[in-house]
């Protein structure tokens, strides 16, 4: 059945491209955050373990929201880990960093999500207010989380 939501095919494609970048960054950050939750050690273990759990839970929910927006635009969401990572600049760690490096890495990761979200907003704001709003919300959350992580260093 044809889709008629007030966006042209080209506009929907541009929106999906913007969302995929944020989805990829979010997926990479989710994976990193969950790994850090499992592997953090040291005197700040309890507080960081709990904070990382809160963060990866929020990121997991965001992944679903972003992927479902792609589907609402009548495109398929990335179907593999490899495809998700192809949209991300955030890279997995080789080994397990210490707790301070984890916090630094996650702060930088949230900044990467915020940048991708802002780029997406700029790309779609004049024709897709729904996607622009979703990406603005992602940037808001990423900005706040990056600040909280920086403040804990």
Task: Output the keywords.
single chain, 153 residues, mainly alpha, Ferritin, 5 helices, 0% strand, elongated
Radius of gyration: 16 Å
Number of strands: 0
Number of domains: 1
Q: Pairing-aware structural class of the strands and helices?
A: mainly alpha
Measured distance between first and last alpha carbons: 52 Å
Helices and strands, in N-to-C order? HHHHH
- The CATH topology assignment is Ferritin
- The percentage of residues in β strands lies in under 5%
- pLDDT < 50 stretches: none
| Overall morphology | elongated
Q: How can the largest sheet be summarized?
A: none
Mean pLDDT: 97
CATH superfamily membership? Ferritin, core subunit, four-helix bundle
CATH architect. name: Up-down Bundle
Family: Belongs to the Dps family.
Organism: Henriciella pelagia
Protein name: DNA starvation/stationary phase protection protein
Domain Ferritin/DPS: 17-151
Structure description:
This protein has 153 residues and is an all-alpha fold. The chain has one domain: Ferritin, core subunit, four-helix bundle (Ferritin, Up-down Bundle). It has helices spanning 9-39, 45-72, 81-86, 99-124, 129-151. The chain is elongated, with a radius of gyration of 16 Å.
């Amino acid at each position: 059945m044809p889709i008629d939501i007030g966006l042209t095919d080209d506009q929907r494609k541009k929106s999906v491209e913007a969302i995929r970048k944020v989805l990829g960054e979010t997926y990479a950050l989710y994976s990193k955050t969950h790994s850090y939750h499992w592997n953090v050690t040291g005197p700040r273990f309890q507080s960081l373990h709990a904070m990382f759990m809160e963060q990866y839970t929020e990121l997991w929910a965001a992944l679903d929201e972003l992927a479902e927006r792609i589907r609402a635009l009548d495109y398929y969401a990335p179907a593999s880990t490899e495809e998700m990572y192809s949209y991300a600049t955030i890279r997995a760690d080789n080994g397990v960093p210490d707790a301070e490096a984890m916090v630094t890495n996650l702060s930088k990761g949230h900044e990467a999500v915020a940048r991708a979200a802002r780029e997406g907003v700029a790309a779609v704001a004049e024709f897709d207010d729904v996607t622009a709003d979703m990406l603005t919300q992602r940037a808001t959350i990423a900005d706040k989380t990056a600040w909280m992580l920086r403040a804990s260093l």
